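Handout, section B. The chain below has 111 residues.
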Amino acid sequence: MEVTLTLTERGQDHHEEVRALLREALDESGLQDVEVVETTIRADEEAIAIKCIGSPTIRINGMDVEYQEREPDETTAGVRYYNTPSGWKSVPEKGMVMRAIEKAKEAEAAS
């Protein structure tokens, strides 16, 4: 399973929180050995090149944890906000990440 985390220099106050959340979701999903490939970008040009939706962008097997195959075209090297049941947050809820992991596991099992 390929797990990527894209961060930007902006919004560094949530970097450790999102790293911990992602590791916790992977561990709880039985994926303790999965490596998270982390990239830090500094400019909008870099965001465009890798389709970064903002910091943090988490992808599981290439699919964004929030949008999946409905990923928007917008890119930014700025802070990202996730639509959660408790409002807009700069870090996704663990359940969102775990659902994306489970969907990726199901797709891998089917292929």
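Note. Helices lie at 15-28, 44-50, 94-110. Compare this with the example in section A.
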